[in-house]
Amino acid sequence: MNTIENLTEYLKNSVSPFHMVGHSIDLLDQAGFIPLSSKESWTLEKGKGYYCRTFSGELFAFKIGRDADLSKGVHIGGAHTDWPCLRVKPNGTFNKKGYLQINAEIYGGPILSTFFDRPLSIAGRLALKSKDLLNPDVVYVDLKKPVLTIPNLAIHMSRSEENAGGLDKQTHLMPLCAMVNETLNQDDYLLRYIAGSTGVKYEDILDFELYIYNPEEPQLVGLNGEFLSSPRLDNATSACALIYGLMDSSPSDRISLAALFDNEEIGSRTKQGADSQMLSIILEKIWASLGRDRISFLSDIQGSMILSVDVGHGFHPNYPASYDITTYPKLGSGFVIKMDSNQKYTWDCEAVGGLMNLCQTFGIPYQRCVKRTGQAGGGTIGSPLSAQVPVKTVDIGVPLLAMHSARELMGTADQISLTDAVTRFFTA
């Protein structure tokens, strides 16, 4: 398959952070990478690839060059596995005048209006009873079909004064899932339905993390198919580029590592987020398994570099006043190097210059991007990553339109340039 076909398949399979990691592992297994446990000591060999799933939504995969010189450090690419959406609350179903509804809460900062009037599905994981009391069994869930929808209020009614307050996030975002009748058991109906669909006993379910997602498939758009419209482009585009870039890379004298973190959309400050010590722990375990002590590790790591890979804001021709007057990325013109003097995007001229040199050497299209002065633009994992592992870091990604929508838009050429840049970075 080509780069866009790979991305399309990746998007279809990435219906929750847990499923994105699971699909990445399937790809790594096919490529001959060796699984590791974070709970065990490692015996690693040069010339081989490995991966470690530390938490359900977090993954580290790396290749050790045949002639790896640890004093040169490691080339790291990081991305996140989550996206803004709705999630099911505990006690997730309730009856309102014969309509069975889901009690949902907002995760991150989605464009809420885009989740209305769409077919929606549910994916995530269940914690099940086990003999190991504090370590329940975990089962991953994907209903795959549209089971929910959030209808809009008709325009004739929404003009009324009683609706002048706008969207109420508690009452207006409750998806419909069924109509109540005499044969319908309303008590935990959603979990009973999921248990039956998943092949587990309802009585064994202890807890859950369930995401409400858009099951519509990616689709090429445009007279020449130059755009890709899809849910979850933020940030499956980046994770896909890192996994395929690592698999296709050929590092000879260094280590290359792809890191996928959860919870970027809510600040990254969790055990499975980029603002934790897990990356440092993984790196130190690699160094120790190859015979280097901690002092050597702390010295060697200074030769490293990080690419924080996350989507950027593409220029929207209908809203030109929202962008910088000279430096704005267009869809289809290459991936973006994101720069911000306040370090919401992480960069410095030495790190950016090195990446530009690599791209120019191999003819890889890229653009630079800065925000309009005074305009908020969001953050990435770059700042917490570079604080936890203080080495040169650059924020890059594909430019998007409709970022944080239930369905976003990108240029297909930009995914190709991003994947090429990541592959060359991992090989350099």
UniProtKB/TrEMBL annotation:
GO terms for molecular function: aminopeptidase activity; metallopeptidase activity; zinc ion binding. It is an enzyme of class 3 (hydrolase). Its cofactor is Zn(2+). GO terms for biological process: proteolysis. Keywords: Aminopeptidase, Hydrolase, Metal-binding, Metalloprotease, Protease, Zinc. InterPro entries: Peptidase_M18 (IPR001948), Peptidase_M18_dom2 (IPR023358). GO terms for cellular component: cytoplasm. Gene3D superfamilies: Aminopeptidase i, Domain 2, Zn peptidases. The keyword Transport does not apply. The keyword Transport does not apply. Its EC number is 3.4.11.-. Pfam families: Peptidase_M18. Belongs to the peptidase M18 family. NCBIfam families: PRK02813.1 (NF002759). This is M18 family aminopeptidase. It comes from Murimonas intestini.
